C-alpha cells in the first residue's frame, strides 16, 4: 500500500500554573510577561485553568480512535492510545480485545509486518524531533532490535517477498540527499548502504520485485513534480522511468509482466491509476472517468487486482480495479466519511483499511474482496459523550475576489445565533481540510457555542493540480486573500457574528493565521498560531537540511533576489506592528520543520509593538503536541483564550 499523508510530558493542567494573574483579561495586558516553567511546559500569560474547563474537556480529550496498521497471521495490528501516546496493539478477532504490544513514551504511528510473519518493523523518534529510528519487533518473544544508525532519519521500509530483508532510506541532518540502505533487520550488522545520494534529493523506496532483484523508487521534488525509477540491487544502477516529464507520481508497484503500476497526473488535472512500461512511452490509463484524485492504493499479492481510494471533494470512497480487463467497480457500501490506507491480506481475499466519519472517530475495518461484506475490527470510544449531539459539517463554496468558488465546511452549533466563529486553516500548504471527526471542533460547537468554518483556500490539494499551484511562489498571498473573502462571506450570514471571528491554524496554517492578522487585523478578534512560520527567510534558513530543498520547491528559494524581496514584503515578522489583536502562540521546542525560533521571534515582535500575546512551549514536543497531557493543557489554555477573545459565557 502506498499512501502519502501528508499529521500533539506534563502533569495535570490545573497544577501546572502559578501565574500572577487574576483573570484572562488581565493576563493579556501587554506589560512585562513572566515566563513560567512547569515540568516540560514553558508559558507566558496563561492564567489558572478553572476545574470546570478541565472537567468538560476531559470527555472530548478521551475520545479514542483506532487506525488499521497491518494484517498478521492471527488478525490485525492497530494504532491506538491507552496512555500518553499512540502505540501498536493486536486484535485477533473482530471487536475482540486489544492487546498492547509496544510500550514507549513516544508515539508509534504504524507497523509493517514481515511477509514471513512473526515480526514487524516500526519507527519511533524522540520528543518529536522526527529523526526516526527503525525497530524490529519479534511477536513471539516481544524482543525489539534497533537496526538504524542513531542521529539519522529513516523510513520507507519495504520488505522482500520472503521477509528476509528490508530496504529503506536514510537522511542526515544538513544533507538534502537521501541514501538507500538494505539488510536483515534482525541483524543490524548486515545493514549496508546500497546507494549513496549525490544530487539525487529525497528518495523513497516503494516495492520489491518478486525475485528481490529490483526496487521501485520515487524521488519527491514537490507535490507537482516527482520522478520514478527502478533500482538494480546487484549493480546499484538507478534507471528513470519516463524521464523529462514534470508530473506528480504517487507510489510504484511491479506488475507480474514487468510493467509498473502508479498513480500520476500526467495529462490530467487529477491523479489516475496507470500502467507504464519501462523503456517505452506506453501508458494505459485506468481511471480517466473519475474526475478526482486516486489516493491510497494497494496491489493484490497475485498482481491482478488493485484496491484504491478516491478523494471525492474531501470524502474518501473505495473502488477496485481489475488489471487485465481494466474494469473499475465500486467497493463496499460505507457510510459518508473517509476510507484510507487500504491493504490486502497475504491471500488477497480481504482488504483492511481505516474509516472515519465527521461524527464517528476512526476505526479499523476490512472487507471481503469477492462479496464486499464489511467487518468492523474496532469500536472507537467517545469519552461518554452523546454521539447524537455531534455536529455534522455542511459543505459549501464561497466566492473570492478573482471570481473563484472556494470549497469549505462549516460546523454550526445548536441554537439561534449569531454565533462567534473560529476559522480553522489547514497546513501543508498543500493540505486539505476534510470532514474527519474532530473532537476539538465538536467541543467548540457543542460546549463553546462557536461555529467552526474550515476553508480549502487556493493551494489546497484535492481539487486538481491547477488549484494546488495557485499559491506557489509570488502568488503566496492569494491564499491569504481567500481568508479575506471568507470574512466577507461570514459578514453576509445572519447566524454568524462577524464581530467575533478568530483564526486558528498550525504549521503553514500558523503562517496563515499571522498573515491574516496582519492583513485583516481590524476584522478579527484574535488568532491562535500553532508551530507557524513567521518569516519564510528565517524558516528556510533554519528548517532541517534534509527538507530545505523540498520546501524551497513550494515556497520559493530565498537565495533568489526576487523571492527574497517578496519574502521581506509578506513576512508577518516584518509586519508585526499590524497585529494589535490578541495572539496565542503554541510551539514544540524540538520542531525540525518550523523551528521554535519562528515562534520566539514573532512573540518578541508583537510584544515590542505593544501587542497582546499568550505563549506555550513544550520542551518534549516537535511539530505539534503528540503527548496527551501536553495536548490536554493546550486545549484548556486555548479554551480560556477563546472564551476571553470571543466573549463567550463559558464552557460549563
Automatic annotation (TrEMBL):
<keyword id="KW-0732">Signal</keyword>
<dbReference type="InterPro" id="IPR029058">
    <property type="entry name" value="AB_hydrolase_fold"/>
</dbReference>
<dbReference type="GO" id="GO:0004252">
    <property type="term" value="F:serine-type endopeptidase activity"/>
</dbReference>
<dbReference type="InterPro" id="IPR011042">
    <property type="entry name" value="6-blade_b-propeller_TolB-like"/>
</dbReference>
<protein>
    <submittedName>
        <fullName>S9 family peptidase</fullName>
    </submittedName>
</protein>
<feature type="signal peptide">
    <location>
        <begin position="1"/>
        <end position="24"/>
    </location>
</feature>
<dbReference type="Pfam" id="PF00326">
    <property type="entry name" value="Peptidase_S9"/>
</dbReference>
<dbReference type="InterPro" id="IPR002470">
    <property type="entry name" value="Peptidase_S9A"/>
</dbReference>
<dbReference type="GO" id="GO:0006508">
    <property type="term" value="P:proteolysis"/>
</dbReference>
<feature type="domain" description="Peptidase S9 prolyl oligopeptidase catalytic">
    <location>
        <begin position="436"/>
        <end position="646"/>
    </location>
</feature>
<dbReference type="InterPro" id="IPR001375">
    <property type="entry name" value="Peptidase_S9_cat"/>
</dbReference>
<keyword id="KW-0378">Hydrolase</keyword>
Amino acid at each position: 500500500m502506498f499512501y502519502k499523508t501528508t499529521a500533539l510530558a506534563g502533569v495535570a493542567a490545573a497544577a501546572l500554573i502559578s501565574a500572577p494573574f487574576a483573570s484572562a483579561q488581565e493576563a493579556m495586558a501587554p506589560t512585562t510577561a513572566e515566563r513560567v516553567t512547569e515540568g516540560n511546559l514553558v508559558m507566558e500569560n496563561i492564567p489558572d485553568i478553572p476545574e470546570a474547563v478541565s472537567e468538560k474537556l476531559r470527555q472530548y480529550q478521551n475520545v479514542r480512535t483506532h487506525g488499521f496498521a497491518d494484517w498478521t497471521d492471527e488478525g490485525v495490528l492497530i494504532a491506538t492510545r491507552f496512555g500518553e501516546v499512540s502505540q501498536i496493539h493486536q486484535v485477533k478477532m473482530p471487536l475482540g480485545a486489544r492487546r498492547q504490544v509496544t510500550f514507549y513514551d513516544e508515539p508509534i504511528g504504524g507497523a509493517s509486518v514481515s511477509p514471513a510473519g512473526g515480526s514487524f518493523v516500526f519507527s519511533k523518534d524522540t520528543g518529536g524531533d522526527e529523526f526516526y529510528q527503525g525497530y524490529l519487533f519479534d511477536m513471539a518473544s516481544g524482543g525489539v532490535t534497533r537496526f538504524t544508525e542513531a542521529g539519522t532519519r529513516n523510513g520507507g521500509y519495504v520488505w522482500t517477498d520472503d521477509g528476509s530483508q528490508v530496504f529503506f532510506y536514510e537522511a542526515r541532518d544538513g544533507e538534502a540527499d537521501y541514501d538507500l540502505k538494505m539488510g536483515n533487520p534482525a541483524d543490524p550488522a548486515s545493514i549496508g548502504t546500497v546507494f549513496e545520494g549525490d544530487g539525487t534529493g529525497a528518495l523513497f523506496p516503494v516495492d520489491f520485485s518478486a525475485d528481490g532483484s529490483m526496487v521501485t523508487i520515487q524521488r519527491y521534488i514537490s507535490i507537482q513534480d516527482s520522478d520514478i525509477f527502478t533500482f538494480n540491487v546487484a549493480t546499484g544502477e538507478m534507471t528513470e522511468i519516463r524521464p523529462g516529464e514534470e508530473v506528480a507520481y504517487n507510489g510504484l508497484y511491479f506488475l507480474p509482466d514487468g510493467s509498473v503500476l502508479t498513480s500520476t497526473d500526467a495529462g490530467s488535472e487529477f491523479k489516475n491509476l496507470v500502467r507504464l512500461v519501462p523503456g517505452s512511452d506506453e501508458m494505459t490509463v485506468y481511471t480517466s472517468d473519475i474526475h478526482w484524485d486516486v489516493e491510497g492504493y494497494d496491489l493484490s499479492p497475485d498482481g491482478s487486482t488493485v484496491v484504491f481510494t478516491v478523494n471525492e471533494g474531501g470524502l474518501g470512497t473505495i473502488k477496485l480495479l481489475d488489471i487485465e480487463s481494466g474494469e473499475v467497480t465500486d467497493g463496499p457500501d460505507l457510510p459518508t466519511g473517509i476510507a484510507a490506507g487500504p491493504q490486502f491480506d497475504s491471500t488477497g481475499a480481504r482488504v483492511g483499511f481505516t474509516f472515519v466519519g465527521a461524527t464517528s472517530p476512526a476505526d479499523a475495518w476490512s472487507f471481503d474482496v469477492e462479496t464486499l461484506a464489511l467487518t468492523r475490527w474496532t469500536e472507537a470510544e467517545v469519552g461518554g459523550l452523546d454521539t447524537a449531539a455531534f455536529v455534522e459539517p455542511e459543505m459549501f463554496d464561497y466566492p473570492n475576489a478573482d471570481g473563484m468558488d472556494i470549497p469549505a465546511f462549516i460546523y454550526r452549533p445548536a441554537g439561534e445565533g449569531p454565533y462567534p466563529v473560529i476559522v480553522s486553516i489547514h497546513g501543508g500548504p498543500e493540505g486539505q481540510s476534510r470532514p474527519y471527526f474532530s473532537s476539538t471542533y465538536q467541543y467548540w460547537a457543542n460546549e463553546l457555542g462557536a461555529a467552526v468554518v474550515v476553508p480549502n483556500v487556493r493551494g489546497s490539494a484535492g481539487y486538481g493540480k491547477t488549484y494546488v499551484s495557485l499559491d506557489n511562489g509570488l502568488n503566496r498571498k492569494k491564499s491569504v486573500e481567500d481568508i479575506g473573502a471568507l470574512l466577507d462571506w461570514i459578514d453576509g450570514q445572519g447566524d454568524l457574528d462577524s464581530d467575533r471571528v478568530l483564526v486558528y491554524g498550525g504549521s503553514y496554517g500558523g503562517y496563515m493565521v499571522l498573515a491574516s492578522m496582519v492583513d485583516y487585523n481590524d476584522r478579527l478578534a484574535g488568532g491562535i498560531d500553532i508551530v507557524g512560520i513567521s518569516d519564510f527567510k528565517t524558516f528556510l534558513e533554519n528548517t532541517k537540511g534534509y527538507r530545505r530543498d523540498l520546501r524551497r520547491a513550494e515556497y520559493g528559494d530565498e537565495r533568489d533576489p526576487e523571492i527574497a524581496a517578496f519574502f521581506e514584503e509578506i513576512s508577518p515578522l516584518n509586519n508585526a506592528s499590524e497585529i494589535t489583536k490578541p495572539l496565542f502562540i503554541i510551539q514544540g521546542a524540538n520542531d525540525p520543520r518550523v523551528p521554535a525560533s519562528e515562534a520566539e521571534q514573532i512573540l518578541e515582535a508583537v510584544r515590542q509593538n505593544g501587542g497582546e500575546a499568550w505563549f506555550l512551549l513544550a520542551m518534549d514536543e516537535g511539530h505539534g503536541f503528540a503527548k496527551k497531557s501536553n495536548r490536554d493543557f493546550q486545549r484548556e489554555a486555548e479554551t480560556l483564550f477563546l472564551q476571553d477573545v470571543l466573549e463567550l459565557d463559558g464552557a460549563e
